[in-house]
Amino acid sequence: MPSPYKILLKSTVKEKIYRSALFKAIRLALREEKFCEPCELSLFFCDDETIRRLNREYRGKDVATDVLSFSQREGDLPPEPLDGTIVLGDIVISVPFARRQAERLGRDLEEELILLSLHGLLHLLGYEDESPSASARMDARVRFFIGKSAVKSEGKKKSGPANCKR
After folding, report:
1. Which pLDDT tens digit goes with each residue over 28-52?
2. Which residue of 98, 146, 148, 156 has the fewest C-beta atoms within 10 A of its own C-beta?
3. For residue 164, which of 73, 40, 30, 41 has the smallest C-alpha distance?
4. What distance in Å separates the CA atoms of residue 139 and residue 143, rounded to the nearest whole number?
């Protein structure tokens, strides 16, 4: 059964992006969040200068950051697509920033990129992290997804969104 989740990936950096583990974690998170509708999201891996420009343009902060999310489900919603696919939005990650952050925190780059992608996904699903309690809730969800995806990669994966509530 094909996945109802379409994930687009673009990268302008030289580092290899391990799609398989990344896409598995995102699909697992969507299932765990009971998001059952066919949807599409994009991941864009870039350099510090690109994310700094986006952060300045859209958030008024003239600094590089690790991840930005741009929801397509806020404000004036676009018309529902003819094929029923919901466009969640875009997640932008600075790979150099992620690499420095991973080194500082004792993680490898692949894990850091997955963590940041999941963090961005939760924003697309409506989570916020402006308060300490909201941030802790998001961090707990990301850690939960990471833990489950590690188990799933050992061959215990469910296929499709069977655990979705309608």
Report:
1. 999 999 988 889 999 999 999 999 9
2. 156
3. 30
4. 6
